[in-house]
Amino acid sequence: MLKNQLQSPARRRKAGISLAIGVLVATGIAVAAPAVAAMTAQTSVADAKPSGVETAAAAEAVVAGRSALTDAAAAVSAAQNSGLDLGEASTAVDTSGLLEAMDDLDDVDALSALELPIVRVKASAEITSVTTQTAALRERQTAALAAVEAAKQAAAAEAAAAALANANTPDAAKATAAAIAADQYGWGSGEFECLNLLWEKESGWNYEAYNQDGGATGIPQSLPGDKMASFGADWATNATTQIRWGLDYIQRAYGSPCSAWGQSQSVNWY
Predict the structure, then answer these.
(1) Where is the signal peptide (predicted)?
(2) b/e string for 235-254 if b means 16 or more Cβ within 10 A?
(3) Per-residue pLDDT, 46
(4) For residues 49-74, b (16+ Cβ closer than 10 Å) or e, as one string?
(5) Domain end residue (candidates: 143, 163, 183)
(6) Range(s) of the domain holding residue 97
(7) Which residues contact 8 (CB under 8 A, 6 or more apart)?
């Protein structure tokens, strides 16, 4: 929340040149002794009205201050309603100093030529402070959101990896092959029995199978293995990709799994 947003401190009213001089000294503004004497003698200087340039600068500071307050309120609301874990640090933006300066600037006619620059400089400093706090709060929210998204992506990747590992087991590979054989090629249980015998002999339905002698790879023992890339770049790690390639090869080369199995029984390869 914005701290003390409704607080309206009493406006400072500085009467007399001595107080104006005190302000100048307190803020580190050097004043030559003759000038001090002159100001002391001429109390009307303390009542001088600000110049048009200074009044315009003050008006700009008011606009900038209101913008900073509005932006801070939006950032605080977004942070508090985001549901994100922003840590233990407060989600508030301290605007009390800016509100006080804005309260003084709100009535320019009540400020003298000596007072207005001091109030305006303070307002500028408070605007910078509020803007900095607002930016930091937004950065915390952005970082928290990025952490949530990263966690979601990690969970999704883990789930995908688990699903792939499960699909790569021999039993899952057999179920996948039976479904594709029936749906895409119209091969029923009899043909699948031949396919099961063939690929059990060739690889034991192991997607990582590799023949050291010839280099035949995967469940269908593609030679070379990268032929299966025509059905997916993941041919080396995905049993389903290997199965799709293997069934297509059997259909093109032999017409059916049983014909391929007959070839294997006859010459020990297919």
Answers:
(1) 1-32
(2) bbebbbbbbbbbbbbbbeeb
(3) 58
(4) ebeeebbebbeebbebbeebbebbbe
(5) 163
(6) 2-163
(7) 99, 103
Reported for 3-9, long-range contacts at CB under 8 A and 24+ positions apart, including other chains, are: 3/92, 3/93, 3/94, 3/95, 3/96, 4/95, 4/96, 4/99, 5/69, 5/73, 5/95, 5/99, 7/96, 7/99, 7/100, 8/99, 8/103, 9/100, 9/103
Report the 10 Å Cβ neighbour count for 34: 8
Q: Six-digit token pair at 66? A: 């209101």
Residue pair 211/225 in contact (Cβ under 8 Å)? The answer is no
Render pLDDT for 208-225 as a digit per residue (tens, 0 to 9). Answer: 999 998 899 999 999 999
Contact 38, 108 (CB under 8 A): no
Strand, helix or coil for residue 138: helix
Identify the domain boundary among 163, 196, 226. Answer: 163
Same domain, 91 and 134: yes
Bridge partner residues of 94 (DSSP): 3
Cβ contacts of 238 within 8 Å, gap of 6 or more: 164, 167, 168, 207, 232
Q: Percent of the chain beyond pLDDT 70? A: 83
CA distance 166 to 163: 5
Q: Are residues 51 and 185 in the same domain?
A: no
Answer whether 16's CB lies under 8 Å from 114's CB: no
In contact, 98 and 7? CB cutoff 8 Å: no
Structure tokens at 226: 């990268």
